[in-house]
Amino acid sequence: MSNKPIILWFRQDLRLSDNPALEYAAKSLRPIIPIYILDVRANIGAASKWWLHHSLQSLAQSLNQKLNFFIGNPQEIIDKLIRENNAAEIVWNRCYEPAVIKRDKGIKEYLKNQNVQVKSFNSALLLEPQDTLKEDNTNYKVFTAFYKKNYLQGNSKIRLPIAKPPNLNLLKIESLSLTDLSLIPKIKWYKNFEKIWQPGENGAFIALDKFLAKGLKGYKELRNRADLEYSSKLSPHLHFGEISPNIIWHNIRSYSQKHGYDVDAEHFLSELVWREFSSNLLYFFPDLPQKNLQRKFDNFPWQENNDFLIKWQKGMTGYPIVDAGMRELWQTGFMHNRVRMIVASFLVKHLMIDWRRGLEWFHDCLVDADIANNRASWQWVAGSGADAAPYFRIFNPILQGQKFDPEGNYTKKFVPELKQLPIKHLFSPWLTPESILAALNIRIGIDYPKPIVVHEKARQKALAAYNAISV
Length: 471
Fold this sequence. Notes:
Oligomer: single chain
Order of helices and strands: EHEHEHEHEHHHHHHHHHHHHHHHHH
Helix content: 40-55%
């Protein structure tokens, strides 16, 4: 057997456990050159860059500091590395974003013409898009049917996780340092992140264990409560591939069967499949990030209102549950899923601002900013996507706060200027009697803003606009 090295290209699979490309490289018995390339054309948000830096730091430690870093055009870098190191083969795990698929196909074709062997694997999805088609070979556009056909219990197509390979023969070559990638933002607004998150494979397993122990029991009933800890917080770990969906799937299944949490587990796993459904939509509809899937929304009269947009971004809309969510996003890089729906609905329907403006802000601020999830979710809320929420379903931000933060703990945490307000008035502070406000020294319009729109009027305006494009 030739002792020519094999190049292992890490991408959104920053882990050693259940990594098919790594397993293949290890079994080849060749020396492995592990590389990470920061593609200069990649659009990575600021919060995601912070996470990526720490995730790569963790991976490099797992690889005994033998991870090699590069910046630039991946095809040019890989071509150079193969020639300089006399490599016989390159291996990677597939990504499913349209631009990356196009790039990778080009690299594969180019290398095969150079007589370089290329292997790629699925490590990011339970099932690849082409394996989830309907009987007529078309893709699903309705989640329930997609889930039932492909993912319900007993589906043997979901593979078991692969063990971490022992005794890797890794080669360190001349490359950049992690610091050279300049991923840490210059403005240190992310300082709070360090107290909340632990990026990396070890952090992913800690998050999974914590969720199994504290968040799975009661998940179905309590997952929408913003004030309770029922979010798994696994989404950023999944996005960067620090843990595989297969590991999560099988751990949730076995734990729930052992402890009798089957109803909660089934619901959580259906949420995991929403991630798969979003990837499918992006795969089959590459225009999803920018174009309405329902074309009638191309004629929707979106409002250009930069003042409203900034107030929404800063959590200064005058609606406490909306503002709490937007401030949570800025302070933590995350937002509770129910609150994501509330703030998105408010932007699109109360303010009638194009969903793409919200998507851009989320992309920059979320540590779990995933192209497929973010795009599909915004189109779902806007009513313009596949299997979308109907546009006329307009959340009342007062009632949503009362229902999903009944004691006000979540809202008061992120909107502390209202923490003295009785729960009866918390979600509509502008309606609080003046005597109560005066006693608490709270001035609406000074200490906390008045509502930038009136709910009922905004609702009627949005419905009228929708009805006009639906005729």
